[in-house]
Amino acid sequence: MNAIETKQLTKCFGALTAVDALDLTVREGELFSLLGVNGAGKTTTIKMLSGLLKPTEGTALVLGHDLLTELNAIKPYVGVSPQETAVAPNLTVRENLELIAGIYGSDRSRVQRMLDELGLQKAEKIKAKRLSGGWQRRLSIAMALVSDPKLLFLDEPTLGLDVLARRELWKVIEGLKGKVTVILTTHYMEEAEQLSDRVGVMNGGSLKLTGTPKELMETAGTESFEEAFVRLAGGETA
Amino acid sequence: MKRTFCFAKRNLKEMVRDPISVGFGIVLPITLLVLLTIINSNIPKEAQENMFAIRLLAPGIGVFGLSFIALFAALLLAKDRGSSFMLRLYTSPMTGGNFILGYTLPLLPMGVVQLVFCFAAAIALGLPFSANLLVCILVCLPIMVVDIAIGLICGTCLNEKAVGGLCGALLTNVTAWLSGCWFSLDLLGDGFRKFAYMLPFANAVDAAHAAVDGSYADIPGKLWVVCVWAVGLMALAVVLFTHKKKLK
Ligand SMILES: Nc1ncnc2c1ncn2[C@@H]1O[C@H](COP(=O)(O)OP(=O)(O)OP(=O)(O)O)[C@@H](O)[C@H]1O
Ligand SMILES: [Mg+2]
Fold it and tell me: What is the pTM of this model?
């Protein structure tokens, strides 16, 4: 089964077409990276698929349900880590996780598990607003995972993380492979190359091409993945 | 229901951990109470009984003070709406009803605490303690719901800056004028009086007075108007919030 099938998914902001008739298929259990320069339409795509923005045209099947008419059937199984860190500032790390676990009705043990897996134990009693940017980011990601989603959107999850925290997070993400479908965006090409089963390159709102990192390097005729991305994603920028 | 409680718990923490606003809601009514009592002790004896007698003053100021809850509700909601934390909650299975109820529940005990402080101050100023005061707190619950609903409607429709002005200045003034807790509504003529009694505030003050006086039979006739407003405004808050949160 496919976790996501978009059909001519389009989003316009006034005269600007941010996402242009996107036809994207992501298989269940796959880790799919959406790549593209700033303004390519990655976040807008994720926002539509997670029910935050209404498509101007087109629709999508998410976990087998229609995005426009059956959003309520989709929501309980989706986790989102937005591009901007999204935590409740006056709650502690643990309380933030408990809140989300409570809202999704997930098992209490998930909270402890997330604290352990994302190395948040020593910060668990600290209010989110007192955490450094990178730690807030970790919490924000833990909050997306705590509900044990079937489909996970990670919009630039490693932005602002130090090298060690990034490696830790990679391990967590790799541990999800095969169990959870993950849609990831990132500007770090080594990250995309290491983690992704497949990548899609967006530019100006449309999907230029998809394939495994290796296939993309072959298409571009380059030795490095970053070089391949530069060739394939370049051209007219938004 | 579980969702509502989890969210309500968060909102309670959010409020209690912002002690300035909580303190304001408690300190202001008490200050007014003390000031007016001082004024009262300086006016002619025969006027004292019906102007700012503590028996009339305490419930009036209690109800007036509750309009600050509208301000809290509005500020909390407006602040949340502008945050990416709220976007995260929008992607969760929470409904408009979950949100509105989750904001309402923790504000009710806060209103009760405010009234308790207000009455404690009134007792210190000479109001005799009686079980009627507890009844009065119960009688004030519907007007609390009205205030919270107004606050949530403002917080849904306005941004954080506008909310401070509208709920802070306007609403508290409107309650003051329309409730008859500062002066008898009869002074402003029959038309105004009728108008004021179609709204919840004056009815709530009358019901609170009746409770403090122990004239329980007079309560239902006033309270039902407040209850109708409470239900209507809450329903409106849910509808507006759900509409706002809808996909754009
Ligand atoms: N709410 C909005 N109103 C108007 N235009 C918007 C809005 N959101 C996004 N856009 C525009 O849509 C286009 C795509 O934006 P989007 O955020 O999806 O890009 P992105 O690929 O996530 O970029 P980045 O890598 O910088 O995060 C941009 O040109 C942006 O200016
Ligand atoms: Mg983005």
Answer: 0.87
